[in-house]
Amino acid sequence: MVQDFKSFQLLFKINIQPYLLFFVSYSKMPFQAKQKSRTMHTWQALAIYLVLAANLSEQQALKQACPSCDASQLCHCSSMSLAFIPPGLTAKITVLNLAHNRIKRIQSQDLQQAVNLRALQLQSNEISSIDEDSFQSLAKLELLDLSNNSLAHLSPVWFGHLFSLQHLYLQGNSYRDLGQSSPFSSLRNLSSLHLGSPQLSVIRQGNFEGIEFLHRLWIDGSNLSQYEEGSLKSIKEINHMIINLKDSNIFSEIVRDLLHSVTWLEVTEIKLPLEKKSLVQNSTRPFRLQKLTLKEAFFTDQTISQAIVLLKEITSLRQLEAINCMLEGKGIWNTDEIAKSGESFVETITIIKIMIQNFHLFFDLEGMESQINNLKRLAITSSNVFMVPCKLARHFSSLLYLDFHDNLLVSKRLNETICRGSWPSLQTLNLSQNSLKSLEETAKYTSRLPNLNNLDISQNSFGEIPDVCKWPENLKYLNLSSTQIPKVTSCIPETLEILDVSGNNLKEFGLQLPLLKELYLTRNQLKALPGAAPIPNVVALSVRRNKLNSFSKEEFESFRRMELLDASDNNFICSCEFLSFVQHEAGIGQVLVGWPDKYVCDSPLAVRGAQVGAVHLSLLECHRSLVVSLICVLVFLVILLLVAVGYKYHVVWYLRMTWAWLQAKRKPKRAPPKDVCYDAFVSYSENDSDWVENTMVRELEQACPPFRLCLHKRDFVPGKWIVDNIIDSIEKSHKTLFVLSEHFVQSEWCKYELDFSHFRLFDENNDAAILVLLEPIQSKAIPKRFCKLRKIMNTKTYLEWPAGEEQQQIFWENLKGALKS
Prior knowledge:
Membrane topology: Single-pass type I membrane protein
Low-confidence stretches: 1-29, 49-56
Transmembrane segments: 626-647
Family: Belongs to the Toll-like receptor family.
Number of helices: 21
Domain TIR: 676-819
Oligomer: single chain
Largest sheet: 21 strands, parallel
Subcellular location: Membrane
Strand content: 15-25%
Radius of gyration: 55 Å
Helix content: 25-40%
């Protein structure tokens, strides 16, 4: 925004301000002068308008063609089918990506305003024409990619003003040469240069003039047929040069020019034989070439013997690589000529995926013993090696590193490959991904290597592990990962400082290894960290991708020397204790590898997938056991309280009574006449039994005719539940006679009898109940739940026991009359 405002200010001062000053002075002019100047300045104002309109339309066109350029210093306009460089590029753009479009031409004005451009990517277009001054304003450009276009020639004028250019990509175009002179003479800061194509056929002397240092030089010369001697000699230093070349004679010429400048030379698709002419003839000394890599090269027994002799002349050469090469032959090399040429200076040989037809017929390279005495590092991987002859193995006297990864070695053949006296100086041995089956035999044969301290036998199918094994005395590093061992035993030596048993489905690790510093237990089935006591000096521990749910502060702190712990990619149970520990332990972020991104909760379900460091549980979740315990205690206390209340207030009795009443409700409301055998059922308090039994019963049962009364003391069936007795007695009686008194109201038994008689009788709305008031009772003293009884006493007549004898006679007559009704 500030930059746009400043640009507007500049435009205002240059283009508009003079015209405002003119209009101020214009008002002071005479009339005729005003008419003359009016026409001229009208055209000038129109020109300003057209310029502003054009600028605005270009910005709109740029935004429409490449939306990512809007308000950004980076313009990513690749794969948008653009046929031209979009207009409206401004000075604020630093990166412009126009790759994979259909641009055919770069014109002078296309990039004129992009003066701050740092990177310009135009690869994979259809560019065949570039105006000479197209890049003139790009003095700050550091990267230019014109690869995979249709440029038929390279012009030095294009790059004349690119003083800051460091990376230039020109490969994959259709030019056949680089011109008569150097296109790169002005590129003093160039660091990497990629050029060439299948059409490139000529490299001339002077094509690389002006270039002194290159970090990387890549040339596609697959069809290069002419190379003028000294063409690359002008470059003083090249760290890494890659050339795709098929002509072996041109290869020899290029090597002679590069021996003084290139550190690492990588050649692809070379087809030997080499010419017998020396590789160092007319070369500038001292030699700088230290590493030679041959990719997809083709050898025969004859040409490889010749190559070995010629490469010995390069006294600086220390590393030799052969990757994806093919060797046609049986190993019948000219060992006499090789031996006469002297010792080799090469210290490291790496062979990866060499294809040998009928490799099982390959000879044992007898006669090459003198050429391997000084070799220090040898790697032959993915090449079907199944054995090394003992005689040859004993001559690797200086070898420190041996890599036979991904071959066909078997346990029984190790007796020949690692025979007694072989590999005497070997310190590191890699036998991973072979066909070894016996861990005991592998240990026994490697124990013949007195200086061995690093052994990798991973990705072999041992399946079993013995209890005791014999290993090299100085073994410090052992890799047993992915070997299908079901457990760890004392077969593993106590001298180890680094042990890798990853990928073996181990469920526990309790091995005593007092010197161990690094332990790798990735991809196993461990549910807890291994104990710290057997491995007290461990500095780094990996338990990634196990079944670890958590680890406690005590477990973590038991490893007193722990500096790195990789427990990532486990299914952590994010309990409160675990979260509290990992979130508040000081410095744990520096110890845990991959923290916090690789530590994710698996449970509780509410936080599954969340990072352990970001989870915060509620108080209820953190003290769930305590909350459950409190709830259980409260439930127990409530139940205890209910039992106590029920016992005190006879709740069980009332429940049983209610059940009996419900059963009584289902019975017929009146018993059949044959079952009625009492005139009245008498309900009374035990405190009133003297009056009932001695006065009322005598009077009624001795009357003429006598009344038959049902008394609970006399007529209830023994052993039968009292509630059933009450209900049966009421049903078998014509009337129910209640002897009411203060004792009756206070008696619990009377309440029960009144309850059931209330349910049975008063619900039928009949007059089967006779109330005898033995003594005056206040209406309020009757329980409120007997609402019908209270209503009857308030609305109907009841018999009251009189004190005088004359009135008592009337009482008996009335009572007898009530019983007969």
